[in-house]
Amino acid sequence: MKVPHLGNGNTYIVPPQRNRPTARPPRWIIILLCLVSVCLIGAYIYPPGQYPACYFFSSSVCSPIKYWLPPIARELTDDEFASRVVIKNILSMPLVWPKHPKIAFMFLTPGSLPFEKLWETFFLGHEGRFSIYVHASREKPVHMSPLFVGRDIRSAKVVWGKISMVEAEKRLLANALQDSDNQHFVLLSDSCVPLHNFDYVYNYLMGTNVSYIDTFWDPGPHGNARYTEHMLPEIEEKDFRKGKKDISVFL
Question: What pTM was computed for the model?
Fold first, then answer.
């Protein structure tokens, strides 16, 4: 179409207007949104059976979505690990005597056990009635007996007479408590050796319901004189005693 241009005799052509189609979202986006909406509505109306009180949109009760995600893999601290053991393996377990009670032998050693072969002779033939846990504070032990292979727990440096010894003992006990069949917990050092056969030790400990802890008052410089105020408020001076770390605890 020719239209006269004002001011001179020239003309120019104005192209006709075209109706552009309205932009539409891709069809796959619409289908995806529909599927997500159906899943959300289904999760709201029919929550998972193992969480009957949970609703997807109610985070005040619980959040079922956290059970759909993979757990975060990280190493627990000693306190977190001990707390989980107490809640999961002690408080949540029924007070029933196990059918096959065991003794947990917990070795606190700086490295390899010098009497490992002797302990192997002590344990052989009594599988299912004992558990072994090794805390090596200085170097990774080289095991000579297959009974000790794979029994090392996460360890840390231990200084004699320091709180690190208590932390190592707690670490051993927390690992042993994961097995509900463990009823007696015997703490040993690398220099300990068995003086009786396994049946004698097993029957003696299982026949009693007491713990054996050697503590005594020692007024000397290597005894109660080691008490410091840094132990407060957990330990008062009147309760401080010297003792051996080789103990047997019944739980």
Answer: 0.63
Structure tokens at 13: 């052509």
Question: Which residues are paired to 150 by β-bridges?
Answer: none
pLDDT, tens only, 168-205: 999 999 999 999 899 999 999 999 999 999 999 999 99
> Which range of residues forms the domain containing residue 159?
101-250
Structure tokens at 194: 């068995």
Amino acid at 26: P
Q: Which amino acid is it at 219? A: P
Residue 4 belongs to a domain: no
Name the percent of the chain in helix, strand, coil, to the closest 5: 30, 15, 55
In a domain, 6, yes or no: no
Helix (H) or strand (E) holding 82: helix 78-85
CA distance 40 to 234: 51
Go through the chain and tell me how many residues it has: 251
pLDDT above 80 for 251: no
The span from the CA of 130 to the CA of 202, in Å, is 9
